[in-house]
Amino acid sequence: MSSGAFAQEGSTHDEPVTREEFSKLLDEFRQFKKESEALKNENAGLKNELAAMNGRLFTLTEEGLQAQIAKAAAAERENLLRELRAETRVQINSLLPGLTNFSLGGGGVIAYVDRENSDSTFALGIAPLILWKPTDDLLFEAEFGFSLGAEETNVELGLAQLSYVVNDYVTIGGGLFRLPFATFWERWHPSWINKLPVIPLLYERGLVGPAGLGVQARGGFALGPTKVNYSAYYINGPDFQTSQVSAGRLGFGNFRDNNNNKGFGFRVGFLPIPEFEVGYSFFTGRVDDSGGVLSDVDTTMQAIDFRYAREFDAIKGRLDLLGEFVWVDTDDEIFTGALLPIVFDNKRRGWFVQAAYRPTQVDFRIGDKFELRNLEFVARYDWLREPGPGSLGTDDQRTTLGLTYWLKPNVAFKVAYVFDDAHGDKNQDGFFIQAAFGM
Amino acid sequence: MKHLLVTAAAACAALACVAALVSGCHTSKATSEQSTVEAVGTVGGEQPLKGGAQAWAQNCMRCHNLRPPHERSDREWEAIVFHMRVRANLTAEEHRLIVEFLKAAN
Asked: Considering chain A, what percentage of its residues have pLDDT values greater than 70?
């Protein structure tokens, strides 16, 4: 039976629709109704979300403003405190007497030495260092050495120099200054820096002296990611020893030149990475006396030095490696005196390497006084060859093993044993104890 | 003289080789002193120079133990770091950074 209630869309006459058409229309109606319900629900949901967003927006805006206000207030307080601190610092400095900067430094040592073939003894020495900086570009420094001799007090002027900063790359200076030859005398000879209670053998024997009187220019500059430094100097230079015992050696204790020729030297250092420096040093000069019996004796000194110091997590501590290789060539000469006149090849060689390990990352203590991280294990090997007439030539090796306990960064208690192997001379194995401090 | 020049040239070449070898073996693992420092500027080249604390740690630690900043006054540090600039041939930038760091930290 057909229904005439619905006419097909687009029909122009009232014709009864078939059951199929009616069903189709009914389905479409139901679909429309369903979609309409869905749209109503979605609309209601959107309205709810909009209301919630409006609420949050209001909340955020208010909190944001409050947070911004609080942050600005904190920054302003911080700026005010910084300005107040700087102003206070200026006022305090202005109350200090004088306009120049003065500082007292240096260090000292108390030691006990017990070596084979010599008497054991206590020893003492102090070396105050005065620094005076009258302007931003000018520095005067002077170091004095006081030590107890056999029956007297020895006093010496270790250095007295004036330095002037010309620009970022050049500093010039004059006076008595630590010789910029290798690095020992310039940088780590002070007892509170040297990790062992003995100095390297080649310096103990005076292969190279500690200071020179003259003028110098020096500086450092970055070269890409690396760094280069240099020192060049013009000094009176050493003299020439002709006594039987010291024949052929250079003497660095003369502060008036013994000839009209000055000595020239330089050192260049290169740091490919901040922890490592390698350097080359060179010096040449005439060493014999003017108008003396010797004929124009010249000397040439060269050295290579290196230092590497770094902390490693893998070994829970700090490794410090350094070494210097020095060779001194002096013209051959005829030596007379108690010995028959003799000429020998006056070439001297010396080197040392040193390794130190400090467990800075190990947390082990005994009571309140001992911390393992303050103990440093140090070893040094020295080699020295010096020619000489007859049996005066020497060929020495030395191994030094030491323990250094750092009570403070600049106060150390050192214990070391030296295994001495001197060919052509008596061995001097020895036990050293030293308390060293830096001001 | 010729022998001297040859020796000097050989020494410089050996130094360059050692420096290249060490540079190649170096890793960029930060040490405890470096980890708390922020970069504040550059000194030519590609690698930025870290702040005053890093300049202080890298340069001073190469020779001796680090001295605490509070040990000395501002004026004393100015004189001492000038002395160290001469001894260790610090660059002008390192000098400036180290002095500023020590004065701020003492």
From this structure: 88
As to burial, measured by CB atoms within 10 angstroms (0-12 exposed, 13-18 middle, 19+ buried), residue A347 is: middle
Domain boundaries, chain B: 49-106
pLDDT digits (tens, 9 = 90+) for B14-66: 554 554 454 544 433 333 333 333 333 333 333 334 588 888 988 998 889 98
With a cut of 70, say whether residue A119 has pLDDT above it: yes
Q: Tell me whether residues A224 and B46 touch, CB distance under 8 A.
A: yes
Q: What is the mean pLDDT of chain B?
A: 69
Q: Under an 8 A CB cutoff, do B18 and A306 touch?
A: yes
Half-sphere exposure of A277 (CA within 13 A, CB side): 29
Q: CB distance A188–B94 less than 8 Å? A: no
- Can you tell me the distance from the alpha carbon of B13 to that of B21, in angstroms, rounded to the nearest whole number? 12
Answer whether A220 sits within 8 Å of B82, measured CB to CB.
Answer: no
Chain B residues whose CB is inside 8 A of the A284 CB are 4
Computed over every residue of chain A, the mean pLDDT equals 88
The complex's ipTM works out to: 0.75
Size of interface A-B (CB pairs under 8 A): 144
State the Cα–Cα distance between residues A410 and A194, nearest whole angstrom.
11
For the domain covering B49-106, report its CATH number: 1.10.760
**Residues 283-302 (A) with a CB less than 8 A from some CB of B:** 284, 300, 302
CA–CA min distance B93, chain A (Å)? 8
Q: Which residues contact A250 (CB under 8 A, 6 or more apart)?
A: A206, A207, A209, A238, A239, A240, A241, A287, A299, A328, A330
Under a CB-based contact definition with an 8 Å cutoff, are residues A280 and A267 in contact?
yes
Give the single-character DSSP code of A187: I
